[in-house]
Amino acid sequence: MRIARVSAPTFVECFRSALGSMAAHGLRSSLTTLGVVIGVASIVAVIALLEGLQSAIASQFAGLGGTSLAISAMTPLEDALQGRRARLTPEDLELVRTRVDGVSNVTPLTVIHDEVHYGARSAVVQVRGTTHSYQDVYNSFPSRGRFLSPADDRQRRRVCVIGDQTRESLGMEEEPMGQFIGLAGEWCRVVGVMERKGALLGASPDHHVLLPYETMRSMAGPDEPPDLLIHLTVVDPAQRLATAERIRALLRRTRALTPEDEDDFRVQTMEEVAEALDAVAATVTTFVAGMVGISLLVAGVGVMNVMLVSVTERTREIGIRKALGATRHHVLLQFLIEAMTLSVSGGLIGLFAGAGIAAFVASLIPDFPTPVPPPAAAAVAIVFSALVGVAFGVLPALRAANLDPIEALRHE
Amino acid sequence: MPLITLKGVSKCYDVGGNTVSALHNVDLCVAKGQRVAIVGSSGSGKSTLLNLIGCLDTPTSGEYVLDGRDISVQDGRRLARIRNAEIGFVFQSFHLLPRLTALANVMQPLVYGGVPMRERKRRALAALTRVGLQDRGSHVPSQLSGGQRQRVAIARACVTRPSIVLADEPTGNLDSAATRQVMDLLDTLHGEGQTILIVTHETDIATRCERTVELADGRIVRDERS
Lengths: 412, 226
Hints:
The complex is a heterodimer of chains A (about 400) and B (about 230). Chain A has helices at about 10-25, 25-60, 75-80, 90-100, 135, 150-155, 165-170, 215-220, 240-255, 270-315, 315-325, 330-365, 375-400, 405-410, and strands at about 70-75, 105-120, 120-130, 140-145, 160, 180-185, 185-195, 210, 230-235, 265-270. By secondary structure, chain A is α+β, with helices and mostly antiparallel strands. Chain B has helices at about 45-55, 75-85, 100-110, 115-130, 145-160, 175-190, 205; strands at about 5-15, 20-30, 35-40, 60-65, 70, 85-90, 165-170, 195-200, 210-215, 220-225. Helices cover about 35% and strands about 30% of the residues of chain B.
């Protein structure tokens, strides 16, 4: 095809002609573009929502830093089916603290959900037992008052730091330091209020109560087997993976796991956690892209069908144009541009519809960040719909271009 | 030098496996500025001859030279360029593009000639003014009478200032008043030195031309100059 020989005014005329043809068959054009609209709208909406979700997760992880490791219990499927549950114990915490070199801020975290009381009000919150290094590991600091101190932990003081939303739920004043809240039948003095972090998918990290780790253990009593999550910071970032491997070997040895046994715990870097979430997002995106690809193929067949009908209907018009001096390339271009205009206009409508759907869905989820389709996704949607137009417009356009002018002029 | 020279031109078509000869060994020369009527019964080869002269088709054998150029050896793209620049068609059933306004219809050949928008509009308006339809530029063909449509078609045929105007039964679908208007327009064009070939069945139209070529069974049987 020597389209380069076709002058710029002809391009503009072809585009005008395409718009005229679409306007002349408004309903038919709308129905033809509907397939492209639905395909593009669905992928744009899903990608925009996934982007929103990923950015929300990323902001939650941002504070954890690249040098953090997280150790958690993980029950192998076989054991879980037998009713056994793996746990990380205070002994494991001590092991990591004392036997692993090059680590700092070894922070236990034990989590339960319980009811807290203040005056006549109560709320169910996440109660976290942890130590003073929590604030460095989670990059989360008190906005008022102070955080839990090593002395609070050692002396098992009944003190707590509360999330800002917990404070609101309990109807406490802005500066609630010195007030007491009821928790598991005991009174804990509020010593600080954490800064707000913002919610993710309705689960607010601000709706919690932080207790000293040892205090929480003593309140739970000896019968309650604790399950810990251990966070730590690797002093030399380059040694992150080696340290993770040393911890793994140590825990396997102390838990007397044989080489055949699977790990009943997991040592993860924060990148791994983020990568796992990205992998889920990528899988969803690939799946949706596949589905949308199929729907765009179907839409493309619709475009081709309508264009073939259009060529048949306009055979005489093609003959007239050729008699007036239209070359084969002019006619080819006219019908290709028409097919592309149909599908690209569907793509553009789909882009805005997708953004609208994503915004609507996001508005139904509390505290979900406003989803904005990434420019790359918008560009891909438009380019892909243009390609659909070209791919499925070529056959009708070739049919039009190859018409014999005399036969076309005689066509009734 | 003649504008149109046909030497031993034949045109055969393959119809259902049989070869049908539409034109047989036709020799014809038309000088610049001549007005020629091509007459003959249906199936005599008039339209085939017009299509060949109009570069919509090429001869099976023989030579067609238009203004010094051998048309028989040109490819499709060059033929299209020649149609655009050298030839203006006027059809019996007007053949205007139904969705375009009269002005846009007249501009159409200039689009394919790559003429810029402003110049296109100026020349199309001038052509419409020449046929007396300057105030009908924004009308689509369905809003025009038969005579007006044919005048738009004549404006379209002349807008590129072609060497030849080929009219295939230009008054075949018109009443007598409109026929008069169209023929007066063709007279004016001829008076300005335009070469015109008219295929017609009507004797009074043929008599307005200074030369009549009659075809029968694909051969020229009469070539009279008045």
